[in-house]
């Protein structure tokens, strides 16, 4: 198990981030915090992808400066666009949260459920 | 040395994420999230992904944090006398289970930085690295793939970003389209 | 922290933040433009540059208040920016069809270094889209939910 930490450290970290993200999404009653949890889960996936492209001694994928080995550029492209799409998604989710607060006067999951039952 | 650096950064990142999970005050959690994003951006630099690091630092630590701050300004910031939240045991067990199951699969992944890993030796990686400059005269292969080889994909991403902008307008009724 | 009325009550004027932002933001803005224009030769490109440009404007709004920034940078300017960006991207894509190429086939334009210029223009378009949309997301979330222009009376 310990040898995994010296050879697969990033994968272990991204799996821990999956766990923490899932916990926040499920366990936190606050809606804003759930969205933060979603972001943490997302970052775990990004870290996983970028790590797969890494090559020991590789240069950043900018060619024509004399280097021989490069890290794989494809994961970088995929993650680059995913980050920007992620922030757009976060903004839409937060807009929905603002609407929910306007309707229910609370961001607490349990309070919102009670208000719904009362209606 | 490299390993030590990774160790420090990844420990920081994971503990910042744990702080987000257990801090009761939302403002503190958001600030912890900003630190978390910045730590991840530095990890990307170590992984030789400057483009991703630049975006993560500007978007994750900057824009996303500000959007969260705006959201709590517009709603509430639940306070309380306790510093940490109580552990929700059900979700904690499920999350631990997920981590446990996934950790058993880690061993089958290639070692980090392995030059013979499937991604590093794949046909597509070699094709992009060898042909990007001769075909597009663009030195940054990431830019070449983004705008040329995967131009359609990028058009789709731009459409998603535009759609998100419109969706916020509609949800907050800044403009009435329907 | 209650902001149920239309104004943003959380804004506090701070000399330190205002001075810092006044000094730093022109450099951040220029760096963002550099990253956007220099995406072909070094790390950078539209997504990164757009995000940095947007964050420099968000920084201004943070220091000087959101309403003054909204007055200074009108909504129509942001809409124009996003529109021009999207038109550039799609226009270059469709323009290639007119030269008997495929969609987004830059080589079809037949000018020397055409592929490179095509890529850079598309990157600039992406940068405009990303910068504009992020700023407008910020402005709209800051405005909060607007009761007055509800859909009921429309």
From TrEMBL, chain A:
Which keywords does this Swiss-Prot/TrEMBL entry list?
Answer: Membrane, Transmembrane, Transmembrane helix
Write out the transmembrane intervals: 6-24, 36-55, 75-98
As for membrane topology, the entry says: Multi-pass membrane protein
Entry keyword annotation includes Metal-binding: no
Single GO cellular component annotation? membrane
Annotated InterPro entries: CPA3_antiporter_subunitC (IPR050601), NUOK/Mnh_C1-like (IPR039428)
Cross-referenced Pfam families = Oxidored_q2 (PF00420)
- Subcellular localization(s) per the UniProt record: Membrane
Q: Which residues form the signal peptide?
A: none
Entries under PANTHER family matching the protein: ANTIPORTER SUBUNIT MNHC2-RELATED, MULTISUBUNIT SODIUM_HYDROGEN ANTIPORTER, MNHC SUBUNIT
Protein name (database record): Monovalent cation/H+ antiporter subunit C
What is the originating organism of this protein?
Haloferax gibbonsii (strain ATCC 33959 / DSM 4427 / JCM 8863 / NBRC 102184 / NCIMB 2188 / Ma 2.38)
Automatic annotation (TrEMBL), chain B:
* Keyword terms: Cell membrane, Membrane, Transmembrane, Transmembrane helix, Transport
Pfam families xrefs: MbhD, MbhE
Q: What is its main location?
A: membrane
Please report the organism this UniProt entry assigns to the protein: Haloferax gibbonsii (strain ATCC 33959 / DSM 4427 / JCM 8863 / NBRC 102184 / NCIMB 2188 / Ma 2.38)
Query: What Gene3D superfamilies does the record tag this protein with?
Result: NADH-ubiquinone/plastoquinone oxidoreductase chain 6, subunit NuoJ
Any stretches that span the bilayer, and where are they? 6-23, 30-47, 53-76, 88-109, 155-172
User: Does the keyword field hold Chloroplast?
Assistant: no
The protein's topology relative to the membrane is: Multi-pass membrane protein
Q: Where is the MrpA C-terminal/MbhE domain?
A: 120-174
Q: What is this protein called?
A: Monovalent cation/H+ antiporter subunit B
Q: Which domain of life is it from?
A: Archaea
Compartments where located: Cell membrane
* GO CC terms in record: plasma membrane
Question: Matching InterPro entries, A to Z?
Answer: CPA3_Na-H_Antiporter_A, MrpA_C/MbhD, MrpA_C/MbhE, Nuo/plastoQ_OxRdtase_6_NuoJ
| Residues of the MrpA C-terminal/MbhD domain | 12-75
TrEMBL record, chain C:
**Any single Gene Ontology cellular-component annotation:** plasma membrane
The record's keywords, sorted A to Z, are: Cell membrane, Membrane, Transmembrane, Transmembrane helix
UniProt xrefs under InterPro entries:
CPA3_antiporter_subunitB (IPR050622), MnhB (IPR007182)
Protein name, UniProt field:
Monovalent cation/H+ antiporter subunit B
- Tell me where it resides: Cell membrane
Where are the annotated coiled coils located? Answer: none
A Pfam family cross-referenced in the UniProt record is MnhB
Q: How does it sit in the membrane?
A: Multi-pass membrane protein
Q: Which residues cross the membrane?
A: 21-40, 46-66, 78-99, 119-139
* Signal sequence, renumbered to the chain: none
Q: Which PANTHER family match?
A: NA(+)/H(+) ANTIPORTER SUBUNIT B, NA(+)_H(+) ANTIPORTER SUBUNIT B
């Amino acid at each position: 198990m310990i040898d995994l930490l010296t050879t697969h450290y990033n994968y272990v970290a991204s799996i821990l981030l999956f766990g923490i993200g899932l916990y926040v999404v499920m366990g936190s009653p606050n809606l804003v915090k759930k969205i933060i949890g979603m972001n943490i889960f997302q970052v775990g996936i990004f870290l996983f992808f970028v790590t797969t492209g890494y090559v020991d001694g590789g240069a950043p994928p900018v060619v024509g400066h004399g280097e021989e080995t490069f890290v794989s550029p494809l994961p970088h492209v995929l993650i680059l666009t995913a980050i920007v799409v992620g922030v757009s998604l976060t903004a839409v989710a937060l807009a929905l949260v603002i609407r929910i607060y306007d309707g229910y006067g609370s961001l607490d999951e349990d309070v919102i459920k009670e208000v719904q039952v009362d209606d | 040395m490299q390993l030590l650096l990774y160790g420090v950064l990844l420990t920081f990142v994971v503990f910042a994420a744990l702080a987000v999970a257990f801090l009761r005050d939302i403002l503190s959690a958001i600030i912890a999230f900003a630190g978390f994003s910045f730590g991840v951006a530095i990890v990307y630099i170590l992984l030789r992904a400057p483009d991703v690091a630049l975006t993560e630092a500007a978007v994750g630590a900057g824009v996303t944090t500000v959007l969260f701050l705006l959201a709590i300004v517009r709603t509430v910031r639940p306070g309380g006398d306790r510093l940490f939240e109580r552990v929700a045991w059900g979700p904690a067990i499920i999350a631990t289970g997920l981590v446990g199951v996934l950790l058993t699969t880690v061993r089958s992944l290639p070692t980090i930085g392995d030059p013979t890993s499937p991604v590093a030796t794949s046909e597509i990686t070699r094709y992009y690295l060898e042909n990007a400059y001769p075909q597009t005269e663009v030195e940054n292969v990431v830019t070449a793939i983004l705008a040329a080889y995967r131009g359609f994909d990028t058009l789709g991403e731009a459409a998603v970003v535009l759609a998100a902008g419109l969706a916020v307008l509609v949800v907050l009724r800044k403009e009435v389209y329907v | 922290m209650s902001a149920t009325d239309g104004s943003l009550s959380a804004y506090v004027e701070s000399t330190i933040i205002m001075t810092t932002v006044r000094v730093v933001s022109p450099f951040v803005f220029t760096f963002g433009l550099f990253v956007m224009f220099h995406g072909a030769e070094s790390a950078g490109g539209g997504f990164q540059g757009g995000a940095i440009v947007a964050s420099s404007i968000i920084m201004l709004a943070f220091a000087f208040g959101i309403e003054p920034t909204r007055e200074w940078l009108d909504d129509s300017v942001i809409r124009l920016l996003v529109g021009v960006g999207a038109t550039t991207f799609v226009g270059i894509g469709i323009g290639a069809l007119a030269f008997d190429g495929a969609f987004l086939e830059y080589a079809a334009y037949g000018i020397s270094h055409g592929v490179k210029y095509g890529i850079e223009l598309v990157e600039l378009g992406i940068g405009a889209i990303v910068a504009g949309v992020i700023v407008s997301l910020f402005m709209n979330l800051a405005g909060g939910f607007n009761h007055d222009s509800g859909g009921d009376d429309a």
